[in-house]
Write a structure and sequence with these properties.
414 residues, alpha/beta, three-stranded mixed sheet
């Protein structure tokens, strides 16, 4: 387990982010920015906080093994942030957000279209007081179009955006039918695209002094992530289908059952295919006229794949991996999550980190995969307790006195 580290230069150490988002897509973006050194102030509802604080079990456990109030789901997307509780439905709360926006470089939000305009916290209102502000909105369907006012959720967008039509076993095989991805992939990718967009807008601001508005939509992201599947349709007019663990364009590029488990074989060219069947003791399959090129293997996959499955089933997973790695054929096991964190490469890369936490004592997290040589991604702050930094931020960022903070709390604004 790698300990989180601090004290290194921060690529975004000069940037402050006012984060009004919750759940996953927005918080994933702001966590990326925090990992890169930005000061992220997370605004949460008093007494409730981000929805995902209640998305448990599991929860982080204290030193005695008892559950804390901190859901593991919340922990995954909120390290490096300071939590401030503000009721934006109150005039005093709205004034606080405007004051914080004056001190921010970026505002990030994922409210329904038009909702923040009612409070004077939309982009047009805030750019009047902070002209160079970068303001990023994350919604299900974007700020315009016939679906703009619909609520968008990852599961729905995976279905609407085509991902589930190409995910899952083939309809003609047992267990066939659409499946969602095992993680909220559309939310995560929207967070990643939002991160890139914010960084691009900050670069433009630094060159020109101009702020701008960013309109991020889950559906847009999902359609973009179809990648080669989307391109296949646009250039053929034929809607792709589900292939399970097989590949529409490459054979063999799929899972096979070994004598004691499963293995992935990913032959990307004819030479790798030849080495695969030769290692399996079936050299005749390398020269069979039906299988000598990938287009021919795709054409005759229903004949070839059963022959390969029979071949693979005669040996254990570890035997296959050793033999195929020796001859340069891409292959690998299908690990469960426990096996992932025990993997020697994962350990060597320091993927798992441990951080001090005010309630749990220690929490275990997954560090950012962004490895920069001079300004590495750093996890300096653990995921915050609800409202943990309210007084600190109002005092240090806005200069509020203890009396003013007490008055705001008495009015229910914080």
């Amino acid at each position: 387990m790698t300990q989180a580290y601090s004290g290194m230069p921060k690529a975004l150490g000069h940037i402050r982010v006012l984060d009004l988002s919750r759940v996953l897509a927005g918080p994933w973006c702001s966590q990326n920015l925090a990992d890169l050194g930005a000061d992220v102030i997370k605004i949460e509802r008093p007494g409730v906080g981000d929805d995902t604080r209640a998305w448990g079990p599991p929860y982080a456990r204290d030193a005695d093994g008892n559950n804390t109030s901190e859901a593991a789901y919340f922990l995954t997307a909120n390290r490096g942030k300071r939590s401030v509780t503000v009721d934006i439905a109150t005039p005093e709360g709205q004034a606080l957000i405007r004051d914080l926006a004056r001190e921010a470089d970026v505002v990030l939000e994922n409210y329904k279209v038009g909702q923040l305009k009612r409070y004077g916290l939309d982009y047009d209102s805030l750019k009047e007081i902070k002209p160079d502000l970068v303001y990023c909105s994350v919604t299900g369907f974007g700020q315009d179009g016939p679906y703009a006012h619909r609520a968008g959720y990852d599961f729905l967008i995976q279905g609407m955006g085509g991902l589930m039509s190409v995910t899952g076993e083939r309809d003609d095989l047992p267990g066939g039918g659409p499946q969602k991805a095992g993680v909220a992939l559309t939310d995560l990718m929207t967070g990643m695209y939002a991160t890139v967009a914010v960084l691009a807008a900050l670069t433009h601001r630094d060159r020109t002094g101009q702020g701008q508005y960013i309109d991020m939509a889950l559906l847009d992201t999902q359609v973009a992530m179809l990648a080669n599947v989307g391109s296949n349709f646009l250039n053929s007019g034929k809607a792709p289908k589900r292939w399970g663990n097989a590949h529409a364009n490459i054979v063999p590029y799929q899972t096979f059952a070994c004598a004691d488990g499963h293995i992935i074989v990913a032959t990307g060219n004819d030479g790798q295919y030849q080495k695969f069947v030769e290692a399996g003791g079936r050299p005749e399959l390398a020269v069979d006229a039906r299988f000598v090129t990938n287009p021919l293997r795709v054409q005759h996959r229903d004949v070839l794949v059963p022959l390969l499955a029979e071949m693979v089933g005669t040996r254990t997973r570890d035997e296959w991996i050793a033999q195929l790695e020796a001859v340069g054929v891409p292959c690998g096991p299908i690990n469960d999550v426990g096996e992932v964190f025990e993997n020697e490469q994962v350990k060597a890369r320091g993927v798992a980190i441990e951080m001090d936490h005010p309630a749990a004592g220690k929490v275990k997290l997954v560090r950012s995969p962004m490895k920069l040589s001079l300004t590495p991604a750093q996890a300096d702050l653990p995921p915050p307790m609800l409202g943990q930094h309210t007084d600190e931020v109002l005092r240090d960022v806005l200069g509020r006195s203890e009396e003013e903070i007490a008055a705001l709390r008495a009015k229910g604004a914080i």
